[in-house]
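Final paragraph of the annual report: two paired records, presented back to back.
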Amino acid sequence: MGFARRELEEALVAIDSTIGKCEKAQTKLKPETAQHTLLVRRIRALKVASVLIRRELESLGPVEG
């Protein structure tokens, strides 16, 4: 399944924004609670997705302008 560069770029913006919001929310949760653990895992998964999207964008080459 292929995605257009623009789709990947838009997804990356949304994912990076969500990571920031989750990290901010994480400071308000008590460590070792289920909610905290879930958020930590969610942040990690989003960071993996961000890295993979960046790799895909790099493999597509520079943006033609």
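The closing record of the year follows.
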Amino acid sequence: MTNKAKKWTLILIGGSVFMIAVLTAFLNGGKIFNFKSDSENQHVSSAENENQQENQDNNLKDEVSQPKEPSIEEDIPSLAEVYKDYFPIGAAIEPRYTTGLISELYKKHVNMLVAENCMKPIEIQPTEGNFTWQSADKIVQFAKENGMELRFHTLVWHNQTPDWFFLDKDGKPMVDETDPKKREENKELLLKRLEDHITVVVSRYKDDIKSWDVVNEVIEPGDGNPNGMRNSPWYQITGTEFIERAFKVAREVGGEDLKLYINDYGTDNPVKRDHLYNLVKDMLDKGVPIDGVGHQTHIDVYSPSIDRIIESMKKFAGLGLDNIVTELDMSIYSWNNRSDYGDNIPEDIIQLQAKRYKELFEAFKENKDILSEVVFWGISDEYSWLNGFPVRRTNAPLPFDRNFQAKPAFWAIVEASQ
């Protein structure tokens, strides 16, 4: 090989090496040489892992910050199933909840329903002689299709009863009447309207509904009557006769298979409880067919004591009566508290609620011989009446949250069944 040829060969080899170096630099982020010690390799690997972990954390934060869509957890226990050896588990429902995702929550977890509003007098007979059944029938049908028992709430109440019940034949308020003869005529007119209402309603549903709230919230010691009676138009016009008549007509029309209850809130309060006890005992002595007492059990995370709740049930059981929990929920606020946690309910409050629910259901289970039904007033925090009472705010009184997910309260209730 000539010297000139050797020279060109070296130039070509050098150029190739240079091109390889440039290409390597391009592939390694611009560095012509990319030799690293073991420690440097470890550092780069660690940095890459940190970057990867940071990206994963950011993705997780994005997922958490996104609003969760409501869904039903199919792989958790059914409340009705875990308490099947003790008592039915029920919940209040509105007609619009018989379809859609919320309906699946009822189907999975309860085996008893009660209408929250649509079976009250103003909904069923808004004007005299004109009965509207569509909403009530919808709940009856939903219960039948899903093998659920039903409760009726309520035949007689001072609230959500249309005004026409309490107007005389001239359209004047009966409570304003002072003439003794006309007052007696008004009493009979009101009792006749009561009889007609109960006769029509019980006749329609007696084959589908066995558990009935006949009268609701007739005791109110704060109204000043010596016997503790609520000073409602019912009481002002008829005394306690409306209670006697309501139970007797319900029994006559519905037969012996119906279970007839007097329902009230605050039955754990000794003063109110004793007034109710005296009323019921007097009715029983007169032969009024009362089968049991419904304890609404709207309580909170602080009070009342569970011992007081059970003590009241035992007192009525002493009269040979059944007890049921008719409207259970547990506010996260004490009774006189009007504050609002908003979207930031403290974790200790959520855990306190769970603890209370567990203790409550343990007590229910231990006293199943005097307690035949437990019914929640709703099923999800999203639709609780306590979001608007006594003030509008965020409340969380039920076992499932606003996305229909099981709360610590749910798991505490399940644990109590074991």
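Residues 1-66 have pLDDT under 50 and may be disordered. This concludes the annual technical report; the extension proposal builds directly on these records.
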